[in-house]
Write a structure and sequence with these properties.
mainly alpha, 4 helices, Multidrug-efflux Transporter Regulator, Chain: A, Domain 2, 120 residues
Length: 120
């Protein structure tokens, strides 16, 4: 799962977004045609510009299709019926991941302090 809080840019190119998810740019374009709520902005040249919100929308699609094995029609139905629940679940997962990262960081600092105090 991508921690969208760590995204620093305002807009991301389709290639960057595809790399974040480990999929092809053509799959991202295909999902855009299949899921009407996914509407990245386009510049004058027609290049897609994905925002953090678009990336969060893609996370939901990716989770349902790639991780849980839904068909596209099944994913559309799931999103339609459970959009609020899915969004809340994504937020909870992000918070848990951030909490885990903090705990791991604290553990590592404690281990370093223990190691340096034994030397003294």
């Amino acid at each position: 799962m991508i921690d969208t809080n760590t995204l620093t840019k305002r807009y991301y190119a389709i290639g960057e977004v595809a790399d974040l998810f480990g999929v092809s740019a053509s799959l991202i374009r295909y999902w855009e045609t299949e899921f009407s709520f996914l509407n990245p902005q386009k510049n004058k040249k027609g290049d897609r510009r994905f925002t953090r919100e678009n990336i969060e929308q893609l996370q939901i699609i990716f989770h349902l299709v790639k991780e849980r094995g839904f068909t596209l029609d099944g994913a559309k139905q799931e999103i339609k019926e459970n959009r609020k629940r899915l969004k809340a679940r994504q937020e909870l997962l992000k918070r848990l991941q951030a909490l885990r990262a903090r705990i791991v960081s604290l553990r590592d600092r404690l281990n370093q302090e223990e190691g340096s105090s034994e030397i003294s």
